[in-house]
Automatic annotation (TrEMBL):
Cellular component, GO, one term: cytosol
Phylogenetic lineage: Bacteria, Bacillati, Bacillota, Negativicutes, Selenomonadales
NCBIfam families, alphabetized: dha_L_ycgS (TIGR02365)
Pathway: Polyol metabolism; glycerol degradation
Ranges for domain DhaL: 2-203
GO MF, any single term: phosphoenolpyruvate-glycerone phosphotransferase activity
Function noted in UniProt: ADP-binding subunit of the dihydroxyacetone kinase, which is responsible for the phosphoenolpyruvate (PEP)-dependent phosphorylation of dihydroxyacetone. DhaL-ADP is converted to DhaL-ATP via a phosphoryl group transfer from DhaM and transmits it to dihydroxyacetone binds to DhaK.
Primary enzyme class: transferase
Organism this protein belongs to: Selenomonas bovis
Keyword Hydrolase: no
Superkingdom as given in the UniProt entry: Bacteria
Protein name, UniProt field: phosphoenolpyruvate--glycerone phosphotransferase
Complexes and interactors: Homodimer. The dihydroxyacetone kinase complex is composed of a homodimer of DhaM, a homodimer of DhaK and the subunit DhaL.
SMART domains: Dak2
Keyword terms, alphabetized: Glycerol metabolism, Kinase, Transferase
Gene that encodes it: dhaL
Length: 207
């Protein structure tokens, strides 16, 4: 076990706990399977963490997480999250430590990978409306003069605000886009899963 694998375990437990909630949100503007998809992915992640050869190597851990999600989750969000973890792994050193700089670099790479694969942008009512505001909290000038823990707290708040923002806009990507304006008023399920994943990591690191 390492601090990173323990953090990812906390994230997995959050997703498993909130499985029904995420599917209920998806039932309103999609096909009702987001919680099922995410839980399947994070069950595979927990198994992968159990058999890791190098839990102390964050690059290898992130690669294993991305692979487990990619190989086990269908639908839209699974491949996007899997890609995000793999892209983060690509820019992660084998002895990387959590700092403002590494959080900025890894989140930035994950977001770039998700954008490239899904062709969505901020404002399309997707997970990106939470992930991009989280990332911003670790970039200059926002992060200037802040400690890592201040950035984490700001990002946790930004994630909550990102979810609220998705309620106010119409979906332009994914299944919810079939509803167009009728998706206004509902939060995006992928935005909520991103927020919950970050919240779990934040609470674990702040414990
Ligand atoms: P599916 O829509 O295939 O059933 P899920 O329900 O698991 O897959 O995931 C839906 C979520 O995926 C959405 O709430 C949204 O946040 C995210 N999503 C869908 N399409 C995209 C995209 N092109 N880019 C980024 N995120 C997307
Ligand atoms: Mg769905
Ligand atoms: Mg589906």
């Amino acid at each position: 076990m390492s601090k990173l694998t323990e953090t990812i375990e906390a994230v997995a437990q959050m997703i498993l706990r909130e499985k029904n909630y995420l599917s209920d949100l998806d039932a309103k503007i999609g096909d009702g399977d987001h919680g099922i998809n995410m839980a399947r992915g994070f069950e595979a992640v927990l198994e992968a963490l159990d058999t890791l050869e190098h839990p102390e190597n964050p690059k290898a851990v992130l690669h294993a997480v991305g692979t487990a999600i990619l190989e086990n989750v269908g639908g839209a969000a699974g491949p996007l999250y899997g890609t995000g973890f793999l892209c983060a792994s690509e820019v992660c050193a084998e002895d990387e430590r959590l700092t403002i700089d590494s959080a900025e670099r890894l989140l930035g790479a994950a977001i770039a990978g998700i954008e490239k694969r899904g062709h969505a942008r901020r404002g399309d009512k997707t997970m990106l409306d939470v992930l991009i505001p989280i990332h911003e909290c670790f970039t200059a000038p926002y992060a200037d003069g802040s400690t890592l823990y201040e950035c984490l707290a700001d990002a946790n708040q930004a994630a909550n605000e990102g979810v609220e923002y998705t309620k106010t806009i119409a979906a332009r990507k994914g299944r919810a886009s079939y509803l167009g304006e009728r998706s206004i008023g509902c939060e995006d399920p992928g935005a909520v899963s991103s927020m919950l994943m970050f919240r779990a990591a934040y609470q674990f690191l702040n414990r």
